[in-house]
Amino acid sequence: MSDPAKVRRHAERIRELVASVVRSQIKDPRLGMITITDARITADLRDATVFYTVLGDAAAQASTAAALESAKGMLRSTVGKALGLRHSPTLTFVLDDVQNQVKHIDDLLTAARTADAEVQRLAATSSYAGDAQPYRVDEDDESTEDESSADESSAGESSADESSADGEPRGGDRR
């Protein structure tokens, strides 16, 4: 197992090498407007995956994939020599369909915004399903509770006003 920092450095170096070789050495007419976006390599440095995008339609993508497949041997030998590893990593090319993913996510976000706007519109014109006071309150219970709490508060005040024979106030209020 290799150090993760070493693996990252090798992956970045593979990306740079493949991009420069594709730009300068591969003269295949099937190669379209290609951009090498990322490269990943396994921890044992034996297998590398190179991600790329192609500007154009599906036919341009297919022809670029065929051109990369035919140039895989030359790319592998160039990468192996430049990295100086005991074993040259095998290269696998994967079409990175970032643009399709971005379009899909944008469509999902647009649909979510539309649904949110519809919910906001419906919420603005709607009212609550129940009453303003959702709990049932008996008028008798409410009036008796008010009277009993008033009695307790007045009783507490009268006992606090009384004082003991030695001049200290009685009850819970000590000053």
Give a short overview.
This protein has 175 residues and is α+β, with helices and mostly antiparallel strands. 55% of the residues lie in helices and 14% in strands.
Structural features, described:
The structure is a single chain. With 175 residues, this protein is of the alpha+beta class. It has a domain at 4-98: K homology (KH) domain (GMP Synthetase, Chain A, domain 3). The chain has five helices and three strands. The chain has helices at residues 4-24, 58-70, 72-83, 98-125, 139-161; strands at 33-41, 47-55, 90-95. The chain has a three-stranded mixed β-sheet with strand order 1-2-3. A hairpin with a 5-residue loop joins β1 and β2 (47-55). The radius of gyration is 39 Å and the shape is elongated. The model has no long low-confidence stretch (mean pLDDT 82).
